[in-house]
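step=encode ok
step=design start
structure_in=
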């Protein structure tokens, strides 16, 4: 299940940048389609993460922090895309996204599950 989780968040990250590229290239229809696929991968990432935690006997504090950071990261992905599409400033959300993404990945690779 670990491989499925890593694959889903890696594809989520790739699709995020594809949507950004398509929006910058003024290909609205393609960006909309890929954005919908990206949202499916958000769900897959959360579902595979939940599957990993179901097998755990207990849930230490750092796992709870990682869950919260993962959900926040997905929220920041969405905020950057939606606010960028509307032409609103995204600088703060980019900073928050980078911080939460680095923290989530670091915790993911250091925790034993």
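sequence_out=
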């Amino acid at each position: 299940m670990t491989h499925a989780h890593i694959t889903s968040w890696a594809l989520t990250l790739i699709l995020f940048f594809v949507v950004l590229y398509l929006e910058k290239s003024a290909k609205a229809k393609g960006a909309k389609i890929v954005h919908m696929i990206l949202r499916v991968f958000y769900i897959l990432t959360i579902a595979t993460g939940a599957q990993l935690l179901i097998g755990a006997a207990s849930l230490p504090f750092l796992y709870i922090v990682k869950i919260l950071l993962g959900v926040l990261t997905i929220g920041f992905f969405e905020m950057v895309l939606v606010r960028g599409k509307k032409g609103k400033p995204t600088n703060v959300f980019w900073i928050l996204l980078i911080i939460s993404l680095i923290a989530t990945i670091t915790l993911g690779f250091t925790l034993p599950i």
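step=design ok
step=annotate ok -> The longest helix spans residues 28-54.
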